[in-house]
Write a structure and sequence with these properties.
Length: 123
């Protein structure tokens, strides 16, 4: 059974940092496209970043230069380091895995999802 469990969310002031983790079981992160998405209250879920099997990393415009996606293959864990956080980054953050095919930012192409972790950034 595939499980993705996020952690590391919390409340921080603008300008602060958080590191999100996504522990994966029943699935090998190094052989998958892994992504981070987020959903703010009242808005649709949006893609934030992904890392491909070849370690190619791509970010949405708002995350580029502030966030960094990575993975620890030995720990089978995905990470999202978030720096210079802004109030507009407030959302529930989800990790997701896509099996097969090229990495992309389409929510519908990801097969497995975590339950989410809340990030709140105050001004």
């Amino acid at each position: 059974q595939v499980q993705l469990v996020e952690s590391g969310g919390g409340s921080v002031q603008a300008g602060g940092s958080l590191r999100l983790s996504c522990a994966v079981s029943g699935y090998t992160v190094s052989r998958s496209c892994m992504g981070w998405f987020r959903q703010a209250r009242g808005k649709q879920r949006e893609w934030v970043s992904y890392i491909s099997m070849r370690d190619v990393t791509v970010y949405t415009v708002s995350a580029k230069g502030r966030f960094r996606i990575s993975r620890d293959n030995a720990e089978n864990t995905l990470y999202l380091q978030m720096n210079s956080l802004k109030p507009e980054d407030t959302a529930t953050y989800y990790c997701a895995a896509r099996s097969g095919g090229d990495c992309n930012s389409l929510e519908s192409s990801y097969n497995h999802w975590g339950q989410g972790t809340q990030v709140t950034v105050s001004s």
